[in-house]
Amino acid sequence: MSQDQENFRDSIGTINEEGKRAWVFPKKPSGKYYKYRKYVSYLLLTFLFAAPFVKINGNQFLMFNVLERRFNIFGFPFWPQDFHLFVISMIIGVIFIALFTVAFGRIFCGWMCPQTIFMEMVFRRIEYWIDGDRGAQIKLDRQPWNAEKIRKRALKWSIFFIISFLIANIFLAYLIGSDRLIRYITDGPGEHLSTLISLLVFTAVFYFIFAWFREQVCIIACPYGRMQGVLLDNKSIVVAYDHKRGEGEKGRKKWRKNEDRKELGYGDCIDCKQCVNVCPTGIDIRNGTQLECVNCTACIDECDTIMEKVNLPKGLIRYASEDEITKKEKFKFTPRLKGYTAVLVILIGVLVGMLFLRNELEANILRLPGQLYEHKENNIISNVYTYKLVNKTTKDVPDVHFKLLSHKGTVKLVRNENFVVPAQDLAEGTLFIEINNAAVKSDKEKLKVGIYSGDELIETTTCSFMAPRSYK
Fold first, then answer.
1. Euclidean distance between CA atoms 213 and 386, whole angstroms
2. What is the per-residue pLDDT for 418?
3. Strand, helix or coil at 306?
4. Do residues 152 and 140 make contact, with C-beta atoms less than 8 angstroms apart?
5. What is the pLDDT of residue 4?
6. How far apart are CA 245 and CA 97, in angstroms?
7. Distance CA 347, CA 91 (A)
8. Is the dihedral of CA 134, 136, 137, 142 positive or negative?
């Protein structure tokens, strides 16, 4: 490309020459890929709205309670004690997206990203219904504030606000849990003012994103677009313009009936600019792979429609790699892809192993800070401890008590009775461990303690026991 042809990289499509926002009015897309995207989008929207209310073994299917550091991933609960598992899960997610990007470009953005799904399949479709297609929207934007414009703007913005409020509720269900959200709703907004304020803040954020900020989220705010530039190579399958076929020897040319374009040296691109008009981020895909492209396939559908009308082969814009266009090379499972896949398989194996080894009851017994041992009669040494038991299940653990497994001795609770660890909660308290000093071999002994529910051993843990040195 010449320097002039590369000038498009000096700015982004949503900013004009004066540095102000250039509003994008994309043409309503249609075609094979758009139909498939609608099916995928409605399936994912159903999943997104249903996931907080689906439970597996009493656990919410997906929950990200950042404040209490409690997360549920596909029904598996992750407590603060399981944070390492959550981190591994997130790393697996990042590597999976990286692997997908290396192989298929930014297809996640165009087909699965919630931002794209809500923007293109919900808000823009409402906009097409109220304001009309591209030409009608441009005309409405330019006309003065008359009765028609006020009516359409008021209707559209009201619907946008209602949908944003609904999305905010679902978002809150992911954060605090669906049960708590439903309880807050039934209690009434006056009982939980802080939650109501948070809900309105989320509503305002979503309204701002989908009513005004729009495609700039993908272009400016989302780090994935920058990540794409590092991950893509000439072998990545992306939405690409076949410049070899489209440009020919003499470049593009407007369509004229009954002319032999190949004999004249012109490419198949008739420079109709419909691929530009339909693009939701306002770019010209003919300039090559760009940061703004989210692989939504709208330009593929539009170009195929035009090619069909002028009796030229479809696929001028298609899913293809640069090497396929220039060298006719088909997709290969490259060493780079093999490396990402190997790392992904190893991490998934590690995560699965850790999940199987994870205990449903987490136990910690620690000596009380600043407290020494106590020497009792009959050569008994006593240490005081605090214990914390975390129940990760959805069922109460009844009749909990402690037994010393590694030494002969006794474990005495301050409350002197067995207790219950509530479901998805914790129990904590104080206990004493008493051992005859003759059974202790050093001044700092490692003890093994069993936690029982009735007669069933449900967990073991260790703690240190301090004894007087002079008795050794």
1. 52
2. 85
3. helix
4. yes
5. 45
6. 31
7. 8
8. positive
Name the percent of the chain lying above pLDDT 90: 55
The tokens for 11 are 């700015």
* Residues 195, 201, 207: CA angle, nearest 5 degrees: 135
What tokens appear for 386 in the block?
A: 């605090």
Query: How many other CB atoms sit within 10 Å of the CB of residue 76?
Result: 19
DSSP per-residue letters across 274-288: HHHHT-TT---GGG-
Is residue 15 very low, low, confident or very high in pLDDT (cuts 50, 70, 90)?
Answer: confident
pLDDT (tens digit, 9 = 90+) per residue, 190-222? 888 888 999 999 999 999 999 999 999 988 888
Each residue of 272-295: pLDDT tens digit? 999 999 999 989 999 988 888 899
Q: Are strands 76-78 and 55-56 parallel, antiparallel or unpaired?
A: unpaired
Distance CA 224, CA 116 (A): 13
Cα separation, 69 vs 390, whole angstroms: 14
**Cβ–Cβ under 8 Å, residues 263 and 249:** no
Strand partners, 15: 21
Question: 3-class SS at 428?
Answer: strand
Contact indicator for 251, 275 with CB cutoff of 8 Å: no
Confidence of residue 11 (pLDDT cuts 50, 70, 90): low
Q: Which of 99, 120, 100 is nearest to 301 (CA)?
A: 120
